[in-house]
Q: What sequence folds into this?
């Protein structure tokens, strides 16, 4: 005799590409997907801070969440805006200003040269306010207690670092960055400002791509905050696990494009 639940459709499973809006945490997006689709096992493949927007890969169902480590391996592409002349303790707009200084025409003229020096493989120190673990606790927990912990530098790679715009009045610089996994863009902003000699912090960040996936194909994350959540629309946007596996495998081993000189 069949059980009472045999007639129920199987829970949805697959991968959602979501264009996260500025404001909610990545975990909040996961919660809303979980609520909208009625699936407990949901995770994401790479955090975006609340002030950041763009592509968030969300895995729905046990079969899909097993792909998270694989999906996090791919290169990332970002559009980043830096504010010159100011340094914050978190290297982003969520922190406290710890230094301010003038930005001269000389600083602006040196931008292409300084940016070009960050191309290729290099060592990058994880920021004190990050989820990197130390003795089982994230670094931000120590930093918030006034006991910041410094971790050894990690090997990263920057494939592309292009200066897209410079607003001399607002003292902002917009960059296009393509990088390997584990790269902190706010640390890149801080380090670039340090090398310029005027300081800088990350004002805004948008993830444009992760591995073979691009934000142009993602659904609007604001849908998750409608009442009721459009469950049918979410389910229709799920990418099958088999298709995701094939796509990520086909992108493995593809030669990286030659580093673009900053201009």
A:
């Amino acid at each position: 005799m069949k059980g009472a639940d045999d007639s129920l459709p199987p829970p949805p499973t697959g991968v959602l590409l979501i264009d996260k809006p500025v404001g909610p945490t990545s975990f909040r997006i996961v919660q809303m997907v979980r609520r909208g689709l009625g699936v407990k096992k949901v995770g994401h493949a790479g955090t975006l801070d609340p002030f950041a927007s763009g592509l968030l890969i969300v895995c729905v169902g046990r079969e899909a969440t097993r792909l998270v480590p694989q999906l996090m391996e791919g290169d990332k592409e970002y559009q980043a805006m830096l504010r010159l002349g100011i340094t914050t303790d978190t290297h982003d707009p969520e922190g406290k200003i710890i230094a301010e200084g003038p930005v001269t025409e000389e600083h602006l003229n040196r931008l292409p040269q300084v940016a070009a020096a960050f191309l290729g493989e290099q060592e990058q120190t994880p920021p004190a306010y990050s989820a990197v673990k130390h003795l089982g606790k994230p670094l931000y927990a120590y930093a918030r207690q006034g006991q910041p912990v410094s971790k050894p530098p990690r090997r990263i790679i920057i494939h592309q670092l292009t200066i897209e715009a410079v607003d001399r009045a607002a003292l902002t610089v917009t960059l296009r960055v393509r990088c390997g996994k584990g790269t902190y863009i706010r640390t890149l902003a801080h380090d670039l400002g340090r090398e310029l000699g005027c300081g800088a912090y990350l004002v805004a960040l948008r993830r444009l791509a992760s591995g073979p996936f691009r934000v142009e194909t993602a659904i609007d994350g604001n849908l998750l905050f409608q009442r009721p959540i459009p469950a049918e629309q979410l389910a229709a946007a799920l990418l099958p696990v088999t298709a995701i596996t094939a796509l990520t495998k086909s992108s493995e081993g593809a030669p990286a494009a030659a580093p673009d000189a900053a201009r």
